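dumping this here before i forget
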Amino acid sequence: MKTIILEDEPLVAKDLQKLLMLIEPSIQIIVVLDSLQSSIEYFKTHDAPDLLLMDIQLSDGVSFDLLKHVDIQCPIIFTTAYNEYAIRAFKVNSVDYLLKPVDRVELQAALEKFKKMKAAQGSDLHEQIQRAVTHLTSATEKKIYKERFMVHSGKSFLVVHHANVAYFIKDTLIYLVTNDKQQFLTDFQTMEELEDLLDPKLFYRANRQYIISAQAVDSFRTDIYSKMILQLKNPLNVSIDISREKAQAFKNWIQ
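structure:
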């Protein structure tokens, strides 16, 4: 069985190869591809294998975009950490998936399934794959934002839910401040990194130093220079400046 692995994590790819060889010693791994772009280029000039093991999230995109560029008519085992709703789409459409880290028993079951599919070689196999990809794309179009934050508390770690976050502040390091004014150190390196993980409906980048939660805002006013001054709720009692340039954007966000 000629097989191709699409996986951008070298150690994961190596483990997959070992598992495949243990389960199916006669398997022939043609190539290990490590990016969406290299996969597109490869399949434009090479035939599809008997089986393709494909990670969904790659460093340069999502692997099911490969099917938008090249016509791959072979069974695919997706490896994924996506949510249950997206995974259900695979099950309904007879396209298999494996959650990482890949388990030997589950991989073996998936291989057995694809042997049966290959034997049947139904003409609708490609259509099934395409339907699954369509479902998956719809299910994952909505970005999933971070809801829990691990913070330092002495020598221990705590988990803070986003509803309990009043704001993040950068003071050399980045700290999380809760609604009851507790301050905890985080491991985030930049405010930009953090901002990208937060739901923009719930959190707003007020300035270079602060990212605030909507539910923590008590009031705001404009000073004589058209700069906005926010006042956070008790017991926070923090005033935060927003520049004149960002004042209207803040008003649109807080409404």
